[in-house]
Amino acid sequence: MKLKRLEMELQHLNGFPHPRAALEQYQTPAPLAARLLYHALMKGDIERKSVVDLGCGTGILAVGAALLGAAAVTGIEIDQNAVDRAEANATLAGTDVEFIVADVRDAALFGRIGTCDTVIMNPPFGARQEHADRPFIDLALKTATVTYGIFNAGSTQFIKTYIEGRAEISEKVGGVFPLRRTFSFHTKDHKDIEVEILRLTSTRSMNHGA
Ligand code: SAH
Questions:
Q1: Fewest CB within a 10 Å sphere: which of 47, 51, 119, 197?
Q2: pLDDT score recorded for residue 210
Q3: Cα gap 175→35, rounded to integer Å
Q4: Burial class (CB in 10 A: 0-12, 13-18, 19+), 188
Q5: How far does residue 55's CA lie from ligand 1's centre (Å)?
Q6: φ, ψ (nearest 5 deg) of residue 72
Q7: pLDDT per position in the chain (210 positions), as tens?
Q8: Is any ligand 1 atom within 6 A of the Cβ of residue 89?
Q9: What is the three-class DSSP state of 58?
Q10: Which atom of ligand 1 is nearest to the CA of 27?
Q11: 160 near 137, Cβ under 8 Å?
Q12: Could you tell me the end-to-end alpha-carbon distance of the chain, in angstroms, rounded to an integer?
């Protein structure tokens, strides 16, 4: 599937029914989601791989990974309403994705999902709740060999320090996130937020030569 086609397919998916500010529920815009996924595909991290989407929301990344030929895709999300929407989106796109309603901070979750090849995620940036992104990074590094995450532009140094000894940043792709007016505290209809897509490689996998 071509990049443009993937973007169109993702554009058809439905957004959050009742976006919750406290959970930073912003759907990744289709062009940005497609860019992350296509990039991961080209690196050999999607096709025939087991993929987990942490904080999958309405499932745009998870569904996209399935469309690109992932062997198995699991979406993890704390909000049941979002998962209902994600399930409908997976069906709409004709994909087979497993969704689990769970909190990434739950220590027992790792035992439930185990390891996978690739984590993809657009976690909360921590704008509403400081360090909300940390449990996402922690779980991703534990479960996956390679992680693709969307972060606020300028986060690279913080993340590099945070993951030291556990993983390294193997790639960085810049992008602009056109955020639509979603919550009452937003004062403009659109605001471009600069983001970076980081590819994190777990040290564990490098040691094993994977
Ligand atoms: N990945 C989706 C949604 C991004 S918004 C997309 O790209 O469109 C961040 C998502 O993380 C929201 O759906 C929110 O409900 C979820 N989330 C926030 N805290 C969480 C937690 N502790 N455990 C699991 N999911 C969480």
A1: 47
A2: 44
A3: 9
A4: exposed
A5: 3
A6: -155, 135
A7: 999 999 999 999 999 999 999 999 989 999 999 999 999 999 999 999 999 999 999 999 999 999 999 999 999 999 999 999 999 999 999 999 999 999 999 999 999 999 999 999 999 987 777 889 999 999 999 999 999 999 988 899 999 999 999 999 999 998 776 766 677 787 777 778 789 999 999 987 665 544
A8: no
A9: coil
A10: 8
A11: no
A12: 27
For residue 58, report the distance from its CA to the centre of ligand 1, in Å.
9
CA of 140 to the centre of ligand 1 (A): 14
Question: Amino acid identity of 37?
Answer: L
Q: How many CB atoms lie within 10 A of CB 94?
A: 10
Joined together, the tokens standing for residue 95 give 């994909």
Provide the β-strand partners of residue 157: none
Q: DSSP secondary structure string, 100-147?
A: EE--TT-TTHHHHH--EEEEEE----SSSSTTTTHHHHHHHHHHEEEE
Cα distances from 120 to residues 170, 185, 190, in angstroms, run 15, 28, 25
User: Nearest 10 degrees: CA dihedral of 111, 114, 132, 68?
Assistant: -150
